[in-house]
């Protein structure tokens, strides 16, 4: 197992009180596996990724749980130990590549510094690896492009550079935080193909954070659905998307535009995501759920309703129910 997260909780101390942005999340990713982490904005996906990377800043803090990376609990090691792992054995691809790239430094400088921060190697060898990495993600004339600045690249090319940097050390785990959201569909498809090829080539585990179910369906092996800081459903991507158990998961699937009839109003989940400072008692999805019942005022537990398919729900859908 590359990464195993157990009962992870990340809180933020604010003037309004303590916000539980991540509340008891447990997930695992095997070597070479791609896990899609999905949910609406504000569901806790990005904070989960930042927590694994130990990048949560004050007033946020990891309140509890374990982050077991190849047997080492990342939640317990020192910042110096984490720094040696971050960017080396664990990498992150951000939604905006300019969070990764320094606008005033050439690409070669940034990539060489990334390599030499973790390995004792010559500048010539680092440059060769940087050039090969750019070629690996489909950037033409990589030797020339190494001498360019980030602003001289398109958005799609900048994201390819960010992906190349993430793969420089052939890490065991990469966390990708909606890296294709701002790109057009053609470039998005190309980058997804590159990521699949690279994870397969190096045996890298990948957590792909997204709100786009179509991207996750095409990319991931397994899927985990988040709502209000908690995981509400997990399983193999085909099983979850074809036979959703949790009403929230079904609502997300029904909201995909291509599932609507031409000329008909778009489906949507009623209401708004509740404030994490004022969640409903019991199931946090209760006030928006079409299957709400009295029992939903009690906190649901995560149960395995089907083989390797879990849901945190009192009244899940049955796979034989008609969803048409």
From TrEMBL:
<dbReference type="InterPro" id="IPR027417">
    <property type="entry name" value="P-loop_NTPase"/>
</dbReference>
<dbReference type="InterPro" id="IPR003593">
    <property type="entry name" value="AAA+_ATPase"/>
</dbReference>
<feature type="domain" description="ABC transporter">
    <location>
        <begin position="3"/>
        <end position="253"/>
    </location>
</feature>
<dbReference type="InterPro" id="IPR050388">
    <property type="entry name" value="ABC_Ni/Peptide_Import"/>
</dbReference>
<keyword id="KW-1003">Cell membrane</keyword>
<dbReference type="GO" id="GO:0015833">
    <property type="term" value="P:peptide transport"/>
</dbReference>
<comment type="similarity">
    <text>Belongs to the ABC transporter superfamily.</text>
</comment>
<dbReference type="GO" id="GO:0055085">
    <property type="term" value="P:transmembrane transport"/>
</dbReference>
<protein>
    <submittedName>
        <fullName>ABC transporter ATP-binding protein</fullName>
    </submittedName>
</protein>
<dbReference type="GO" id="GO:0005886">
    <property type="term" value="C:plasma membrane"/>
</dbReference>
<dbReference type="GO" id="GO:0016887">
    <property type="term" value="F:ATP hydrolysis activity"/>
</dbReference>
<keyword id="KW-0472">Membrane</keyword>
<dbReference type="InterPro" id="IPR017871">
    <property type="entry name" value="ABC_transporter-like_CS"/>
</dbReference>
<keyword id="KW-0067">ATP-binding</keyword>
<keyword id="KW-0813">Transport</keyword>
<keyword id="KW-0547">Nucleotide-binding</keyword>
<dbReference type="InterPro" id="IPR013563">
    <property type="entry name" value="Oligopep_ABC_C"/>
</dbReference>
<dbReference type="InterPro" id="IPR003439">
    <property type="entry name" value="ABC_transporter-like_ATP-bd"/>
</dbReference>
<dbReference type="GO" id="GO:0005524">
    <property type="term" value="F:ATP binding"/>
</dbReference>
<dbReference type="Pfam" id="PF00005">
    <property type="entry name" value="ABC_tran"/>
</dbReference>
<dbReference type="Pfam" id="PF08352">
    <property type="entry name" value="oligo_HPY"/>
</dbReference>
């Amino acid at each position: 197992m590359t990464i195993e997260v157990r009962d992870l909780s990340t809180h933020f101390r604010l003037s309004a009180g303590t916000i539980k942005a991540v509340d008891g999340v447990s997930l695992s990713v095997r070597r070479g596996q791609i896990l899609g982490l999905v949910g609406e904005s504000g569901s806790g996906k990005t904070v989960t990724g930042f927590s694994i990377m130990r990048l949560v800043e004050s007033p946020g803090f990891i309140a509890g749980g374990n982050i077991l990376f190849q047997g080492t609990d990342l939640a317990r090691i020192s910042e110096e130990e984490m720094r040696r792992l971050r960017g080396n054995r664990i990498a992150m691809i951000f939604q905006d590549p300019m969070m990764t790239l320094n606008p005033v430094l050439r690409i070669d400088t940034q990539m060489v510094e990334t390599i030499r921060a973790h390995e004792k190697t010559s500048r010539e060898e680092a440059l060769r690896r940087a050039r090969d990495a750019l070629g690996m993600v489909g950037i033409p004339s990589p030797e020339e492009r190494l001498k360019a600045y980030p602003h001289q690249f398109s958005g799609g090319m900048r994201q390819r550079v960010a992906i190349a940097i993430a793969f420089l050390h052939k890490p065991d785990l990469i966390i990708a935080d909606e890296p294709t959201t701002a790109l057009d569909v053609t470039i998005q498809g190309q980058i997804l193909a590159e990521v699949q090829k690279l994870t397969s080539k190096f045996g890298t585990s990948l957590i792909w954070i997204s709100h786009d179910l179509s991207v996750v369906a095409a990319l991931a092996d397994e899927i985990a659905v988040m709502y209000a800081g908690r995981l509400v459903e997990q399983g193999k991507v085909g099983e979850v998307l074809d036979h959703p158990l949790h009403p929230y998961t079904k609502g997300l699937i029904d909201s995909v535009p291509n599932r609507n009839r031409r000329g008909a109003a778009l489906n949507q989940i009623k209401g708004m995501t509740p404030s994490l400072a004022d969640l409903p008692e019991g199931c946090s999805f209760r006030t928006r759920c079409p299957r709400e019942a009295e029992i939903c005022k009690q906190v649901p537990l995560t149960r395995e309703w089907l083989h390797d398919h879990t849901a945190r729900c009192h009244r899940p859908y049955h796979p034989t129910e008609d969803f048409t």
